[in-house]
Amino acid sequence: MDDFGYSKRSVIESANSQIKRKLGDRLRSRKWFTQFKETELKISVYNIEIAICVFLL
To answer: What contacts 45, CB < 8 A, 6 or more positions away?
Structure first.
Protein backbone atom coordinates (compact mmCIF):
# COMPACT_ATOMS: atom_id res chain seq x y z
CA MET A 1 0.00 0.00 0.00
CA ASP A 2 1.16 3.49 -0.70
CA ASP A 3 1.33 6.03 2.11
CA PHE A 4 -1.68 8.04 0.91
CA GLY A 5 -3.99 5.03 0.69
CA TYR A 6 -2.91 3.75 4.07
CA SER A 7 -3.60 7.06 5.79
CA LYS A 8 -7.14 7.06 4.38
CA ARG A 9 -7.68 3.54 5.65
CA SER A 10 -6.36 4.52 9.05
CA VAL A 11 -8.83 7.39 9.32
CA ILE A 12 -11.75 5.15 8.30
CA GLU A 13 -10.77 2.41 10.76
CA SER A 14 -10.48 5.00 13.51
CA ALA A 15 -13.97 6.37 12.79
CA ASN A 16 -15.42 2.83 12.75
CA SER A 17 -13.82 2.12 16.10
CA GLN A 18 -15.22 5.31 17.63
CA ILE A 19 -18.73 4.57 16.35
CA LYS A 20 -18.60 1.05 17.79
CA ARG A 21 -17.36 2.30 21.17
CA LYS A 22 -19.97 5.05 21.47
CA LEU A 23 -23.03 3.40 19.93
CA GLY A 24 -22.32 -0.30 20.26
CA ASP A 25 -21.38 -2.87 17.68
CA ARG A 26 -24.61 -4.89 17.61
CA LEU A 27 -27.53 -4.39 15.27
CA ARG A 28 -30.96 -5.19 16.63
CA SER A 29 -32.69 -5.59 13.29
CA ARG A 30 -33.05 -8.93 11.53
CA LYS A 31 -33.76 -7.95 7.93
CA TRP A 32 -30.92 -6.63 5.83
CA PHE A 33 -32.80 -3.48 4.81
CA THR A 34 -33.55 -2.46 8.39
CA GLN A 35 -29.96 -3.30 9.35
CA PHE A 36 -28.81 -0.95 6.62
CA LYS A 37 -31.14 1.79 7.92
CA GLU A 38 -29.95 1.22 11.49
CA THR A 39 -26.33 1.50 10.38
CA GLU A 40 -27.08 4.72 8.48
CA LEU A 41 -28.76 6.14 11.59
CA LYS A 42 -25.77 5.29 13.78
CA ILE A 43 -23.41 6.99 11.34
CA SER A 44 -25.68 10.04 11.17
CA VAL A 45 -25.79 10.33 14.96
CA TYR A 46 -21.99 10.07 15.09
CA ASN A 47 -21.62 12.80 12.44
CA ILE A 48 -24.01 15.09 14.35
CA GLU A 49 -22.05 14.55 17.57
CA ILE A 50 -18.80 15.44 15.79
CA ALA A 51 -20.38 18.55 14.22
CA ILE A 52 -21.66 19.73 17.61
CA CYS A 53 -18.23 19.22 19.20
CA VAL A 54 -16.53 21.19 16.43
CA PHE A 55 -19.15 23.94 16.66
CA LEU A 56 -18.73 24.31 20.42
CA LEU A 57 -14.95 24.62 20.20
So the answer is: 23
